[in-house]
Specification:
alpha+beta, 5 helices, rod-shaped
Length: about 220
Amino acid sequence: MKTLIKFFILAVALFSLQACTRIETGTVGLRIDMSRQIQGTELQPGTWNQTLIGSVLEFQVRSIPTGWDNLTPQTADNSTLKDFDINIVYEINPSSVSELWVNQSRSFHNYQHGDYLLMQNYMSQVLSSAAAKAVRKYKALEVADNRENIEKDVHKIIVAMLTEEKLEKSINVSQVRVTSATPADDIVASANNAVRAQNDLKTKQVEVEIAKQEAIRI
């Protein structure tokens, strides 16, 4: 009889564990009840939450990356860059998870590897717009030398856009990196031709000066 009771207790314990989920570090959970309604209180990392009744969604809130490769923004001299790559990392305020999930469009979010990435699609579009505005300040051949300034400008523009949408307390951009900035081939060719012409001119000027000195000597 005692063996049967122990077996029953063990079975209940195993069943209870299987009907629970643990919120991992760097994520926040939201409970969905039987009526498919979102419970407003966020489930914190490290907590165990039963899924026997209802379910639990997990959202990554730390170090969420997004970015663009092969952008072709216009520069101050109306040239189109051949290649422009930029990436950002942002965080979600854990206390804003429920608000963002309930009030923002589902198309703003992304789902990867079992976790919902809140506002990733939205931040990708914001980044694209900010990058275009920041690059527009510089000429094509100046962009690569001004990566750091462009990164700062992009951050400022994104913060301003988030503030306008009243999202500045919910989303924090922690990192902006420009990884590639390549001018169009014709711009590079024109610059090389200009440098070559200047060098040729200097060479001819030196030759003329040598000829003058030689004439004076004679």
